[in-house]
Amino acid sequence: MASLRAPSLCIDASSRMLSALQSTTSSLGSLRRSHFLKSSKQPALKSVRGRSQSSAISAARLSTNHSSAETVNRPASKVQEMHVYEINELDRSSPAYLRLSQKEVNSLGDLVPFTNKVYSGDLQKRLGITAGLCVLIQHVPERNGDRYEAVYSFYFGEYGHLSVQGAYLTYEDTYLAVVGGSGLFAGAYGQVKLQQLVFPFKLFYTFYLQGIPDLPEELLGTPVPPSPEVEPTPAARAAEPHAILKNYTN
Question: In terms of Cα–Cα distance, which of 5, 10, 195 is closest to 85?
Answer without folding.
Answer: 195
